[in-house]
Amino acid sequence: MIRRVVITGMGVVSPIGIGLNNFWESIRNERCGIDSITRFDASRLPCRVAGEVKNYNGEDYFDRRTVLRTAVFAQFAMIAGKEAWTDAELDKFTFDDADRCGVLLGNGVGGLEVDDDSHYKLFDKGPSKIPAMTIPKMICNEAAGNLSIYLGIRGSAHVVVTACASSCDAIGFAMDRIRCGRADVILSGGAESAMTEYGIGGFSQINTLSTNYNDTPNRASRPFDKNRDGFVLGEGAGILVLEELEHAKKRNAKIYAELVGYGASADAYHLTAPSPNGEGGTRAIIAALKDANLKPNEIDYINAHGTSTPTNDPIETAAIKNAFGEHAYKLAVSSTKGMTGHTLGAAGGIEAIITTLAIRDNFMPATINLDEPDPNCDLDYVPNKGRNKTINAAISMSLGFGGHNSVVALKKYQD
Question: What one-character DSSP code corresponds to residue 153?
Fold first, then answer.
């Protein structure tokens, strides 16, 4: 018998708030966290807006030595991970077998600001001036490594790297590890901070970022809107405590929702463009529903990838229509990236948290800045204002460069 997996804790670092309650209040009130870039001088770039974590200072959360030895994305993971750990009251719990608790995160690019700084020093002063901690700080696994050290988690600690699908895949992999009995509790989700001139400049070179709204940054991310012109980079972390149901019940843990399915596919088509007609995304949705033993008409809400790029949004819409048929026009679909920006490898974790809270509160978050729908995007995207409506089951979608498609399915917990 497959073991059931529930969500018992969550933590968030985001452009619209640090901390779960602050974050969810911002989502419910349609607050936008996108503004002009302050982290560096962006005047040379065609895109000068982003979803930065506002006024972030690592020394507000860690001692100076820890800040100097960790990249920003790892710090975000530790902050969100500790909140999730405390939210689940695992800080008051002692495991009979410490190896039964692990970490499984997603990340896209690692410590990009560390990479930038080290290259400047290499080119300016030579290899002897490369900081000693460059490699340990920049590599993608360091979010999971630092989080396991920070919380003393001694089970397996892994990282999944599938671009923007990374943390959605991580949640799916973590669920499978618990289901098959390899772990009882796993902190899963993702973290990302690519907020550098190199990071934004690199995305600019492949014409994926918004450039038309530098003077009105809060209008720049507009999923499914006719006048969208690219995505807006965000940063942050979203970490969830996934726990085997009986383990959670024995310690009287609160349960937010049940994680019931995971599906993934590869487009095998193009490095940066999704396969035509969304067939790859369709297969991932169908796989997740089959894994969850849910029928298409049982899904009430979809948190879409919805990046606000001219190419992605209609193809994702087509994937949803292919998978759900006529029911696609009866369910609600929204992209919350209009508020957070696209947090790359952290997106799946942050959006799984949104989906979980949407189920808990029976609240469908809005797709903001949706003023004139693209004719090729003709579903109910909950435009501009969130909606109170019962959500019994939902899916969260993440799609990544390289043709990675990832979907997790969640539903209300029933004993």
Answer: -
User: Which residue, among 195, 201, 208, has the nearest Cα to 109 in the 3D structure?
Assistant: 195
| Residue at 256 is within a domain | no
- The DSSP code for 62 is S
Q: Which of 140, 305, 377, 404 is labelled catalytic?
A: 305
Catalytic residue at 164? yes
The conformation of residue 39, written as its DSSP 8-state character, comes to S
Place of tokens 């003709």: 378
247 is annotated as an active-site residue: no
- Digit-coded pLDDT (tens) for 69-93: 999 999 999 999 999 999 999 999 9
Task: Report the distance separating Cα 22 and Cα 19, nearest Å.
Answer: 6
180 included as an active-site residue: no
Alpha-carbon distance of 105 to 164, in angstroms, equals 13
- Please tell me whether residues 304 and 385 are part of one structural domain: yes
Phi, psi angles (nearest 5°) of residue 104: -145, 105
Residue 304 is classified by DSSP as -
> Do the domain assignments include residue 243?
yes
Q: How far is it, in rounded angstroms, from Cα 36 to Cα 232?
A: 11
pLDDT digits (tens, 9 = 90+) for 332-380: 999 999 999 999 999 999 999 999 999 999 999 999 999 999 999 999 9
Domain that holds residue 209: 5-250
Domain for residue 96, yes or no?
yes
SS3 10: strand
The domain boundary, picked from 224, 250, 276, lies at 250
Same domain, 238 and 295: no
**DSSP per-residue string spanning 367-384:** BTT-SSB-TT--SB--BS
User: pTM here?
Assistant: 0.97
The encoded tokens of residue 318 equal 């087509």
Q: Among residues 164, 168, 247, 377, which one is catalytic?
A: 164
Sign of CA dihedral 343, 15, 13, 139: positive
Q: Residue 60 pLDDT more than 80?
A: yes
Alpha-carbon distance 341 to 374, whole Å?
A: 19
Compute the C-alpha angle 22/353/165, nearest 5°: 125
Residues 105 and 138 in one domain: yes
- Strands, DSSP E only, in 56-164? 101-106, 157-160
Same domain, 158 and 11: yes
343 domain-assigned = yes
At 232-242, the pLDDT tens digits run 999 999 999 99
Catalytic residue among 158, 247, 342, 404: 342
